[in-house]
Structures are given as structure tokens and as C-alpha cells.
Amino acid sequence: MPSKNTPKGYPLDQSPLYRLRGKGQFERVLQVQWAAVDKLLSADNYRVWLNDKGREIQQPLGWLAHVHRRIGKLLARIELPDYVYSKKGRSYADNARQHVGATPLVKTDIHRFYPSVTRAMVYRLFANDFQCAEDVAHRLADICCYQREHLPTGSALSGRVAFFAARHMFDEIAEVAAEEQCKMTTYVDDVTVSGAAATKRLLGTVRRIVSKHGLNTKQRKSRTYAARSAKAVTGAVLVGDELRLPNERHRKIWEAKQAFAKATRKERPRILRTIRGREQEAQQILISTTEK
Questions:
Q1: 160: number of Cβ within 10 Å
Q2: Helix (H) or strand (E) segment spanning residue 93
Q3: I need a labelling partner for 267 at 20 to 30 A (CA). Which of 27, 37, 190, 247 fits?
Q4: Is residue 184 a contact partner of residue 178, using CB atoms and an 8 Å limit?
Q5: Contact, 150 vs 117, CB < 8 A?
Q6: Distance between CA atoms of residues 55 and 138, nearest Å
Q7: CA-to-CA distance for 123 and 143, rounded, in angstroms?
Q8: Among 115, 168, 164, 200, which residue's Cα sits nearest to residue 17?
Q9: Band of the pLDDT at 3, cuts 50, 70, 90?
Q10: In angstroms, rounded to a whole number, what is the distance separating the alpha carbons of residues 256 and 126?
Q11: CA-to-CA distance for 214 and 166, rounded, in angstroms?
């Protein structure tokens, strides 16, 4: 069932981005002059750096960031399938909670999801699904993509654009799961399927569907779980009918509290905010399934 907190949206064909046919419509909806797009795409409008995991982050800046937020907000208003849990009103804990119980489970994720969504895929999204004019679809693809190559890893629009660009793939996985009387959910790049038929065979089928659509999964991120085993799903651990906090999250809370005890008076407010944030995040997981 959809969460009570999930905001109402509208169908894709009611979006302001649907069937943009001319420069005037483009400028009105995007709030960007057609002739200014080339300047908008300057490399100077991105900040690029490596995060703690060594992944390159491409973050739009200034005017480009504003335009990306505009597109992201327009896309966020479009209704999504009920299997999607990476949206307002839902959380990664809600996603995991859909799979509680003594039932087999399989999971995988899309490897390097945002960088794997190419400009060509984004163009096809706007040209085919949104039925925009060809020149408009090209402009939208250019704006959305880092250096006209792929979705940026640090943009407000990347999550929604990635989903819609891969929507047919996710729908196909959901259909296969339903045919097997299984439940499928997705949270950004994570795909989880649970049910009596959630076996290695079904996992193989899911991975082949992903590959058919031009994306990749990794063997080490693709797992099967027996019905009564503990199952790790999107930052939570499923044990029977309960969601539990992973050991790694327990450890981080403990480490923050240890650091607080040893911190100077000046350092304590920052560490206290960290502790509170981690405890609030943990509470999303520990809340009883009967309350959801």
C-alpha cells in the first residue's frame, strides 16, 4: 500500500515537460533563454571532486544548479509506480519493511547508476516518453548531462531522470516478479524481490533484464537469502518480522559517543549533532512494523 505521507502527483502526460514543442515553451517551462543554453553548459558551472569512497562527484553550481533543481522539481511531481520507495514520503527503511517475514529474498543493484545513464538515454526519454520536439529533447539532454555525456553524480535531478530513463527496465522487472507472485521494490539503484519464487533463477532473470537495457549489475552486490535467514536490505537488517539496525550503524553511534566524551567544549556541539542525526536515522529502522 502507498504510504499515507506520499504526496499526490499527476500522470507523466500532465507534466509541463510533456510535449514541449518550441523555443517559447522551452523558455517558459525551464525559465532559461534558448540562446543561453551553451553558456549554461560551461565546465565552470560544475564542481568536481572525489568523495571519501573515491567516487567522482559532479555538482552543478549557480545558475545551472538552479535549472537542475527546477527540472528535478517538475519531474518529482509525476506519479511513480508503487514499487518505487526513493521518493518523498518514503524512506530506505520503508523499502526494507516491504520484505519482512520468513520468505526468500533476492537483491541486486545497478552498478554506477547515474554515470551509466548516458546522454543518448536521456535524449530518448524526452523524445519518446515525453514526446518533446527533437531540438527540445536535445537541449534537455544537454542540460541534464555532465559534459553532454552522462547524468552528474551530484545533481538534484539525477535521481528522477535516472529512474525515468530506466523506467521500462524497472517495469519489466516488476512484471516478472508479479508473474512469479513476488513483491518487487526499488530504492534508487537497489532492486529487491521477495516471495517463494525469489531464487537464484529469478535473480539471474533480473540481472539479464538489467543487461538487456544497457546497464550492469555486479556479482558481489547480487545476493540470495533463504527464507529464515537475516537479510540486509537498503541499510537495514530483516530478521523475521522485524527491522534491525546493522552492526555498522551501532558502531558509528558508539564511536560518535566516545568522541563526544573526549571532545573539547568547542567540538562537542558538532559531535552532538552527529549523534542526534545518527540516532534519528536509526529510529526510522527501529520503529515497529505495526506502526507503519
A1: 21
A2: helix 92-97
A3: 247
A4: yes
A5: yes
A6: 28
A7: 11
A8: 164
A9: very low
A10: 45
A11: 9
